[in-house]
Specification:
The protein is α/β, with parallel strands linked by helices. It has a domain of about 160 residues: P-loop containing nucleotide triphosphate hydrolases (Rossmann fold, 3-Layer(aba) Sandwich), CATH 3.40.50. It is about 30% helix and about 25% strand. It is built from eleven helices and twelve strands. Strands 6-7-8-3-9-10-12-11 form an eight-stranded mixed beta sheet, sandwiched between helices. A four-stranded antiparallel beta sheet has the order 2-1-4-5. A hairpin with a 2-residue loop joins strand 11 and strand 12. Helix 3 crosses helix 4 and helix 4 crosses helix 6. The longest helix has 18 residues. The radius of gyration is 21 Å and the shape is globular.
Length: about 325
């Protein structure tokens, strides 16, 4: 890896699903980079393509889905088209995924210590069982699991949902990966545990130089965790930049709508602000800009062709009529 080279560079990624009704473009021309130690928030409503983007990066898209184009450069190596053997060698070692459902990570019939020792020894056979057990115990302690020695001997069904998710996160962090992809992993956890895990993950990125992609619909998490943010809508990134720039001065009407609909931004007793309408079906996107049917800034020209990604000071933007353009240049 060259100095200043990003840990991950996604270039014009396209992931399609072949359905009876036609080709569903779940990820359509997505590009972004994550540097060592950087936290990137990937934000959008359900169905915007966030999770499929994460799965595409580590080769977990199964038929009828396929990566139809673009590059996924991990430390300069293109993972698109890499062999299953190569991807298996990277997954869980250099690249870790934390799933929304912890049972996608945990085997229900094996004790936690067995699963954690296997995860360590699969990628580093030289580590003996005793050393692996110490590492596993420390990892459980890091994510706030009390009495880790006893918990190691338990089975997944003996944990609450929140505890299971913490075990899954501990397993993802075991081998100190270079890249972590986290798919809404704290959604089911209470706020104090969520805060503790966000703090641990942030600390890990700072100490080890791991890059983190945090996939979420929750802007308040991104505001406190991420350095940079990409906002996705209908399979495309519509705005990206530093987290302060994008959240303090949104320029895409969709980003502004997402921020405006956060409950804490509403005056007490007033009606909750929301974006009108629904996310369109990816099989039946409106002509032109995909957001125009829900957008208060839409003009007749927005229906002619989709906007392309343009660099503007401090960010990228995919919009013909941005909001707050004047103060964005201020």
């Amino acid at each position: 890896m060259r100095p200043n080279q990003p840990v991950l560079a996604v270039e014009s990624l396209r992931t399609h699903f072949d359905t009876r009704a036609g080709v569903l473009k779940a990820v359509d021309d997505v590009s972004f980079q994550v540097a060592p130690g950087q936290v990137l928030g990937l934000v959008g409503e359900s169905g915007s393509g966030k999770t499929v983007t994460g799965f595409s990066i580590i080769g977990l898209v199964d038929p009828p889905g396929r990566v139809a184009g673009g590059k996924v450069l991990f430390k300069g190596e293109d993972l698109v088209g890499a062999s299953e053997e190569r991807l298996r060698g990277l997954r869980g070692d250099r690249v870790a995924m934390i799933f929304q459902d912890p049972m996608m990570t945990l085997n229900p019939v094996l004790r936690v210590d067995t699963q954690m020792i296997e995860a360590i020894q699969a990628h580093d056979p030289k580590v003996d069982r005793k050393a692996a057990l110490i590492r596993a115990r420390d990892a459980l302690g890091r994510v706030g699991i009390p009495s880790p020695d006893e918990r190691l001997k338990a089975y997944p069904h003996q944990f609450s949902g929140g505890m299971r998710q913490r075990v899954a996160i501990a397993i993802a962090l075991l081998n100190k990966p270079d890249l972590i992809i986290a798919d809404e992993p704290t959604t089911a956890l209470d706020v104090t545990i969520q805060g503790q895990i966000l703090y641990e993950v942030q600390k890990l990125c700072r100490e080890t130089g791991a890059a983190l992609i945090w996939i979420t619909h929750d802007l308040s998490v991104v505001a406190g965790l991420a350095d940079a943010v990409c906002v996705m809508y209908a399979g495309r990134i519509v705005e990206s930049g530093s987290v302060d720039d994008v959240l303090d001065r949104p320029m895409h009407p969709y980003t502004a709508g997402l921020i405006g609909s956060v409950p804490s931004r509403n005056r007490r007793g007033s009606k909750l602000a929301q974006i009108p309408g629904m996310t369109p079906s990816l099989l039946n996107l409106p002509q032109g800009c995909a957001f125009r049917t829900r957008c208060s800034h839409a003009q007749p020209g927005c229906a002619v062709e989709p906007p392309i990604t343009q660099p503007v000071p401090g960010r990228t933007l995919r919009c013909f009529h941005p909001v707050g353009l004047a103060h964005a240049h201020a």
